[in-house]
Amino acid sequence: MSIFAQTCGIVLLLVLLVFFLRHKKVELRTEQAFLACLLMTLACLFLDIFSIVAINRMDIFPQSLVSFICKSYLVSLVGESLFPLLYICIDIDSLHSARHLRRKLFFIGYACVFVVLIYSLPIYYYYDNGVVQYTYGPSVMITYVGALSLVISNFVIMFRQKTRINAMRREAVMLWMLLWVCTALIQLLNSALLIVGYGSAIGIMILYLNIENPESNLDRQSGMFNHNALYQYIRQKYQTGQRFSCLTIILKHSLVDMLHSQTETFTEIEIAKYLHSIPGVKVFKDSEDKILVLFKNEQNALEKSEQIREHFEQEWGRENDMYARCDWVFISDSQMVENEDDFLYLLLYVRQENLIRSDSSYLKVDMPLVNRMYEEKQAEAMLRDSLAEDRVSVFYQPIYSNREKRFTCAEALVRITDKDGNIVPPAKFIGIAERNGMILALGKRVFEKVCEFLQRVDIQALGLQYIEVNLSVVQCGYKHLANDYIEIIEQYHTDPKQINLEITESASVGAKQVLLKNMDTLRKYGISFSLDDFGTGQANLNYIVDMPVDIVKFDRDMTTAYFENARATHVMNAAIHMIHGMQLHIVAEGIETKEQFEAMDKIGISYIQGYYFSKPRPEKDFISFIREKNLPAEAEV
Question: How many CB atoms sit inside 10 A of residue 521's CB?
């Protein structure tokens, strides 16, 4: 019997073993399980060769020894089927969970039954011209039954638990098992063709190239572990209940540019070399400007974190006035959050909310901050559910015309309800929606509901001219806004002249050209525009010159300041004079008292909006209110 295929398989596996061992690894359980699979396959190939040698030297070796070696090879085939099963189960359950232990013990026990049977049952040798060609008999058949049943179990688990298993790992193991089954069937049909071991070696190579190559976990430029390695590592930590501390280094943009220039005094390689020299840490490059240093315990983390900060601030590039400027986020205990996804979300949350103190560039995460993050996560989930279940509604706040002495328009304001039917304050979800991009879907939903309302209700018969709809900062920078809104208007056959869109000052800073293009398209279609929250954004009167708006809205803070601050009074009077000079109308928001209303009327404010007249109202309540105020005679009838 030839051992060429087995020899090729051994050479291939030894090469993979050398490459696997020579690279630094994250110490993942999947890495350890892969190594176990590789060594099991290697042992199987060696035992295959030993069994062939023993069979061909039966005149030298005792038959009992030959039988033991041959049966050991058969046992290794069962092991080759068991190890991939245990390997794939790592992704499914937590290492110490009762389910994982039960699953693991069950399959190990199941395999042990076949091991006992293999060693107990007889094995026979097929001779051709006095030369042994292959083995057969009950021991061989029970091997195929055991191995095949374990392979089938592997396929069943991969299919049933596919959402919980790494997709690339699942595909690689599936290819491995298919190769194993195909070569086993070929060998079963032609027992002289001993290729099962070589097929397994090819499967191990596929697994290595697809997912278990240690280089795939490394950032090529710096030598630090990458984001994929970070996620797998902290996921394992949470699964096994192992606590850790983390220091996040957020590099300033100027520093990132300097690193890319690869100056002699300061490079990413130098950073990695220094951080790796610290005992007991794992270093990950999560993005271009973010490095995570993970410590095994808080005490070591506190001490080493301070050393790292001092090293960055004092050791690098001082002589060239370009020292390493960074922001620092320290998480003392990973158990502050529930899982790996929340851990990474926490780091993102800190940056989104700009929580790092500008004076020290350092933030130590505490439980109040974590609780605030979870509250916002819950609000985000609630918002997502509200959109999916259409728990979004529109309230309308009437706007009073001082000139016509009646309500001539209204502002549409979004409201959502929780699962218990309670109204959620906009402050709890608007900012979140803008940060995560859901504001586009939310704004579109509100606009659809307003257009549907205008289709059903004859607002002109109520004395109203138009409905104002807010545009968020994100919407103003969305290049498809005009096309999307025109499509909705045409879908509901709405008169575009009955719609006024409110933009904010801050909205026009980052995406001014996109906004102007959208405004031009929508104005030509018949929609008018207001400049909302004037005086509170990043702009000034220049925005009124640049933006083709018809109405300017004074924010509540600005109108309140008019009555409380003499300087604010002069500024607002000057602004009113200039705006009126441009033939634009003014809406004063946040008017709550009769004195405020009369003062605004006296200085020439065109429109009044606020609780003095009405709070935002649901649709039916709003219509009843307008009928009562604008059409008193009809209301009496």
Answer: 15
- The domain covering 218-365 belongs, at the CATH homologous superfamily level, to Reverse transcriptase/Diguanylate cyclase domain (3.30.70.270)
Q: Hey, what are 284's tokens? A: 């990950």
CA dist., res. 388 & res. 452, Å (int): 19
DSSP-assigned states of every residue in 54-104 = HHHTTTTS-HHHHHHHHHHHHHHHHHHHHHHHHHHHTTTS-TTSHHHHHHH
- What gap in Å lies between CA 144 and CA 152, rounded to an integer? 12
Query: What is the sign, positive or negative, of the torsion defined by CA atoms of 413, 416, 421, 424?
Result: negative
* Coil/strand/helix, residue 70: helix
Rounded to whole angstroms, the Cα distance separating 36 from 24 reads 17
Query: In this structure, is the dihedral angle defined by the CA atoms of residues 294, 299, 305 and 308, taken in order, positive or negative?
Result: negative
DSSP state of 497: G
State how far the Cα of 610 lies from the Cα of 606, in Å rounded to an integer.
14
Q: Note whether 184 and 147 are within 8 A (CB).
A: yes
Single-letter amino acid, residue 563: F
Q: Are 527 and 533 in contact (CB under 8 A)?
A: no
Strand, coil or helix: what is 414?
Answer: strand
Give the contacts of 244 (CB within 8 A, at least 6 positions apart). Answer: 234, 237, 294, 295, 296, 297, 334
CB 174 within 8 A of CB 156: no
186 vs 134: CA distance, rounded Å: 14
Which tokens in the block code for residue 25?
């690894």
The four Cα atoms 206, 208, 212, 215 give a dihedral, to 10 degrees, of -120
Contact 297, 243 (CB under 8 A): yes
- Residue 86 identity: L
CA distances 271 to 69, 326, 520, Å, are: 53, 13, 51
pLDDT for position 352: 77
Is there a contact between 59 and 4 (Cβ–Cβ < 8 Å)?
A: no
pLDDT of residue 60: 87
The segments of the chain whose pLDDT lies below 70 read 1-2, 93-98, 100, 127-134, 191-192, 253-267, 315-324, 357-360, 505-510, 535-542, 633-637
Q: Which residue type sits at 264? A: E
Q: Determine contact, residues 224/283, Cβ cutoff 8 Å.
A: yes
Helix (H) or strand (E) run with residue 180 in it:
helix 167-189
Question: Torsion over CA of 186, 188, 190 and 194, rounded to 10 degrees?
Answer: 80
CATH of domain 4-216: 1.20.1070
H-run or E-run covering 520: helix 512-525
Domain segments of the chain as ranges:
4-216, 218-365, 387-629
Q: What is the pLDDT of residue 509?
A: 54
- β-bridge pairing 290-295 and 326-331: unpaired
CA distances from 356 to 294, 359, 380 (A): 19, 9, 22
CATH topology of domain 387-629: TIM Barrel (3.20.20)
